[in-house]
Amino acid sequence: MSLSTGALEALNKHWAVAAIGSDELERAGELVGQRLVQRAVGRQISFSFVKSSDEEPFLVRVALAFELAAIEGLDELSRPAGENQNLRDQAVAASFRAFDIRRLLPVPEETLDRLFFVLQLSAIAYCGDRWSDLRRWYREQGEALKAPSVADAEWDRRLLYRLFDCWVRLFRKEGWDDLDRIREIISGLRDDQRIHEERRLQNGSKAVDRTIALRLAALYNWAKATETLASYILQGQPGDPFGTLDKHFEAGIKSAAASGDAQHEVVLRWLHATSRIMVTNSLWWATRTVNSKTSDFVRSLTKREHQAMFELLPPQRAALLEQGLLDQAKTAIVVDLPTSGGKTLLAQFRILQALNQFQVDGGWVVYVAPTRALSAQITRRLRTDFEPIGLRVEQLTGAVEVDAFEEELLADRSEPFDILVATPEKLSLVIRNRKVDRPLALVVMDEAHNLEAEGRGLRIELLLATVKRDCPRANFLLLMPYVEGAESVARWLAQDIDAGNAISLGTVPWKPNERIIGLYRAVADDSARGGWHLDFETLTASEKAMPLHGTHRVGGVKPIDLPKSHVLTKGAQKGLGLQTAAMGAVMSARGTSVAVANNIRTVWKMAGEAARSLPEMEEVPSDIRLVQDFVRTEISADFRLVGMLEKGVGVHHAGLSDDVRALMEWLAETGSLRMLCATSTIAQGINFPVSSVFLSSRYVPQGTRSVEIAPREFWNLVGRAGRIGHDSVGVVGLSEGSDRDALIEFVSRNTGALVSRLVVLLDELAAQGSLAKLSDVLWKDQWEDFRCYIAHLWAEKKNLDAVLADSEQLLRQTYGYTSMRNDPQQRQKADALLDATHSYARELAEMPQGIAELADSTGFSPEGVQAAMGGIGNLESRLTVSDWAPESLFGSGGRMADLVGVMLRVPQLKQDLIELGGQGFDRSRISEITNDWVNGRGLEAIAREYFSRENDDEVGTAALTDACRAIYRTIVNSGTWGVSALSRVSGIDFDALSEVDKRRINALPAMIYHGVSSEDAVLMRMNAAPRSAAEGLGSLYRDVTGEDMGRYSVGAARRFLRGLGADEWDGVRPEGVPLSGTGYKRVWEILSGEAS
Amino acid sequence: MEDLRDSQAVRDDLLKYLGHRAGLAPWRARFERAAGRYLQNTSDVQLFGFLVRDVEPHRDDLRARVSGLALGSGKGTRIELLALYLPHESLDGIGDAMVLRRSGVER
User: Fold this and answer.
1) B32 vs A12, A516, A606, B74, CA distance in Å?
2) What is the b/e burial string over A421-434, where b = at least 16 CB atoms within 10 angstroms of the residue's CB?
3) Which of A415, A803, A959, B36 could link A947 by a cystine bridge, Cβ 3.0 to 4.6 Å?
């Protein structure tokens, strides 16, 4: 059983712990916190803690109390669980606490003391469920972990030193080879035994000889147990290692005791318990009863070159072994896991199980990620992990529509995909239009707390409802952080009332790492002219961070090179973005820091100032060099980001391409970046750990408004601060500005239970007293997804009576309606929703035929479809099939401008387009940019032509940023979706078209999305080839494959790219660009997930 | 004796060692009471020193140790020294004699 908060509380009543006294325990807790942060960030933050000389002996005394409590239950940990659960819990809780203190104490210098200290600390860590913290401690140690030289050492010492070496390997688990060496070491000891043993037993005294013989017997048994354990961790063999481990440890302990060697006996007792825990933590043990695919997967994880995995984090183990993650009877599982708790691995196990369960029927799994960047990231991860075991992972790229190649991919039965990665919008179209004719086995929804998000929460809820209705056999796995009461969500999704399971691990004592949170502010500093520095006030307002008191100084005077007037005016705080940049720059000395602002302009400014103030890097990492060349090639040699990267500063916001953003994330992941400046969109894109996170504001833009970040979202973002296996303390800061009290209140807010957007919308109406008028407001934007949901039913039934009869059932599929229906206080709202559904169904009945079907196939609302049809009908000349050819649509005099004009009438598209139009653009300019983009024009040229402005800097950063935003935010999304949808509603009779024409029209949106003008180039881009080489690659692909129609396949294109050598990449790159053939290949490997 | 008196680490290790053995021991309750006191004051210990000799008893055997050990004792520490004098030259071979005796052979 995993450690519970209750067990930690019960521990305080233990006689040894109680002997310390509660005040003293509290003091110890504070000291531990202080020492931890001092050690972790003491170089960057001058903490204002008061020190006293008796601290160390005091902490040792408290640690002893915990150890005595742990020792009492140690025997319990050395046998199968279940005999005395309380004692077991006590041992785990006490070890957990003892480790907190022991890890902060100095390692003894004397050799034997050092070895036993390291072994015992490691054992305490395992017994206290702290192996991830132990590995961090191991990384911080240097000499302490080194095994002493065995030259000239007596045989028993030689054994001890070698065994120490083996156990250091077992604890640090640095990879297959590191662990596999244990086998060789033990086998070497067997050889040595023949040479050294006899001599060691000739001491001239029988008593001494007998003592040594017993000591050797203890060591031999220890060695045998070590060998067994290593074999199990590596290969899962022998299947049940406990018998062997128990036998050798028990014999070893007996011999050590008889030899009178207390230290040896004690350490063996600890290691016995540790070995059992190590086995139950291991991937092999957790998956021993699962199918062979899972075993293959575990094998590949243990053999991975980078970050090989052997054991489960405590919450992962709890989910798998204790809370039924793989229980097939549970069709809906909701996992509430702290950020960085390792949820992807849990999803992977469940995915393998679902695929196995649906193997006969060819079932598929979808992994829903909130953003395209995260989709790409998860695709890379799943592909890296699953392709070696023969599973096909595909990602739906594009904006919202499903294009020609995706159609092919979804329908492919010869090499069917196993796992699809998609955004909710894409999946919605796939499900509604039944694009895959195989059963959906499992929906994994990442960041599922988006269910309550104002922007798209309703869409996600209704997507899940649609899956429930249209794919009755589908299972659900929802992953979310910090959600209380997840049971109700699980119950909603489960088809059967008992089939829901909420795995709640959000409140377990285990943490990915410790964290401090505080407010920072600029303070005048007279030690320099125009001087200022930063103060950091640590807050105690939240349980999610360490309670540390005090205000501490951060960095030196002028942490970024700007005069005081930029950050302070007459004592008032200003330049919060700059202060944030300064915090990020100072803290970047200990690992990547993320500085967040709520608009792109501030992000550039922060990055610019931070880069200006940071010293040169000793050596710019080759990864950064690669990305610099990529940016020079794909955007512009003068793009500011290139210079910022030179100082290790990256940028991440919506004004950059998905590729650049993915590469920024990759640089952060590989630890090459000192600092990443980003907009709050990174909250959902950041699936990589960083050392610190700083926010210049707690507000984020929501449409045209600015809203506070929801508490759950905030903790999800700041939860990334601190890296498993690296930093022991993550640092989180908020810019104080003039809002101190409000910020403290903000940090202290509870995350609470998940609330359906439907409920929120109805609550708002009820508060206004307008519940009865729901039908009158249903046309508003916030109800759009709801209207689409009803239209989907209409598209299926095509009959008013049938729709009216099924409406209640339809609503019952939603979380919001179910929860309101089940709550007597809320029934009135449920009734209002049902009434509004009926009246909207009647409206649909009045609409021209086929509108609901078009809504389903385009993703527009029925009203959007009507607006689009109206717009197309009003065009001066009718659109014909020939207008939909790439050369005529995107060529000069093509119809793109007309289409943009229509798009500006569609509610779902117009917002972004108007925003772009607000910069003085009319539809023809938007279409010109689109055409230039598709025809391969570079971003720099587009920026110069359309976005030049007088007050820009010399390299035209603002123009480039605007160009990137126009393309990556507006054209790539609304333009792509718009062209796709308009082709559907334009009246073309698709059934009458040839396959070639059909595919060509269906490929148009993808051309806009990817910025290329041929189908072959689209295929290259879909497989993550950089845009600048896509056309060249496309024509090479055409040459290689000839006229074989089978080439129009995402999988075939990927195989082609995989087979290309650096020379071939070199051959297709545009002349004179900075990125070499090797560079192109490498970037492709990174973006496509082919990189190992 | 000096190690036990001066080194908290040595005393702590001893306590932990006893902790491992206290499980079902009849002295467990006493151990807990004593350890509880020790946890409040790690100098609150009583040390016993045994001197075993096979010569004529003499006060000086302990006198030097007493004055040495008394200096620098922690607050609360008590030390008791006991001397056991065996018949002349009987110590040599006492170990072997014990082993034989345990195996039933009297000499």
Assistant:
1) 15, 37, 60, 21
2) bbbbbbbbbbbbbe
3) A959
Q: How far is A300 from chain B (nearest CA, A)?
A: 41
Residues 6+ apart with CB under 8 A from A722: A340, A512, A513, A514, A515, A689, A691, A728, A729, A730, A731
pLDDT tens per residue, range A178-193: 999 999 999 999 999 9
The answer, yes or no, to whether residue A492 has pLDDT greater than 50, is yes
Q: Is A984 helix (H, G, I), strand (E, B) or coil?
A: helix
> How far is the alpha carbon of B40 from chain A, nearest alpha carbon, in Å?
6
Rounded Cα gap, residues A763 and A748, in angstroms: 25
Chain B residues with CB under 8 Å of A18 CB are: 36
Looking at beta carbons, which residues of chain B come within 8 Å of A263? 13
Whether residue A636 contacts residue A938, with contact meaning beta carbons closer than 8 Å, is answered with: yes
Q: How far apart are CA A237 and CA A837, in angstroms?
A: 59
Instruction: Output DSSP code: residue A319.
Output: I
Among residues A710, A781, A802, A272, the alpha carbon closest in space to that of A483 is found at A710
> Which site among A23, A55, A71, A208 would you substitute to test the B interface, given the most B Cβ atoms closer than 10 Å to its Cβ?
A71
Q: Hey, what's the torsion of the CAs at A518, A522, A527, A528, to 10 degrees? A: 140
A16: nearest CB among B17, B20, B39: B39
CB under 8 Å to B18, separation ≥6 — which residues? Answer: B31, B35
User: Chain B residues with CB inside 8 Å of A74's CB?
Assistant: 20
Least Cα distance to A1065 among A1040, A1037, A1033 occurs for: A1033
pLDDT score of A918 more than 60? no
Q: Name A418's Cβ contacts closer than 8 Å, sequence gap at least 6.
A: A355, A364, A365, A386, A391, A392, A393
Q: Is the pLDDT of residue A340 over 80?
A: no
Residues constituting chain A:
1092
Q: Kindly state the tokens that stand for A384.
A: 């890296």
In this predicted structure, what is the pLDDT of residue A909?
Answer: 84
Rounded to 5 degrees, what are φ and ψ at A700?
-130, 150
What interface predicted TM-score (ipTM) does this complex get?
0.89
Supply the pLDDT for residue A672. 94
Residue B107 has a pLDDT of 47
- Residues of chain B under the 50 pLDDT cut: 107
Dist. CA B84–CA A204, nearest whole Å:
28
The model's confidence at residue A263, banded by pLDDT at 50, 70 and 90, is very high
Decide if A266 and B20 are in contact by the 8 Å CB cutoff: yes
Which residues in chain B are contacts of A127 at CB distance < 8 A?
none
As a whole number of angstroms, the distance between CA A256 and CA A219 comes to: 8
Residue A492: count of CB within 10 angstroms of its CB: 25
Average pLDDT, chain A: 90
Cα separation values, A976 from A364, A657, A903, Å: 27, 15, 11
Amino acid at A541: A
- Residues A67, B20: C-beta atoms closer than 8 Å: no
CB-based contact (8 Å) between A61 and chain B?
yes
- Give the number of residues written for chain B: 107
pLDDT value at A954 more than 90: no
- Tell me the whole-structure pTM to 2 decimals: 0.90
- For residue range A695-712, what is the model confidence (pLDDT) as tens digits? 999 998 877 788 898 888
**What CA dihedral angle connects A641, A644, A650 and A654, to 10 degrees?**
-30
Q: What is the 3-state secondary structure (H, E, C) of A923-951?
A: HHHHHHHHHHHHCCCCHHHHHHHHHCCCC
**Are A840 and A777 a contacting pair, CB within 8 Å?**
no
Q: Which of A515, A535, A517, A516 is nearest to A525 (CA)?
A: A535
CA end-to-end distance (rounded Å), chain B: 35
Of B8, B20, B32, the CB nearest to A71: B20
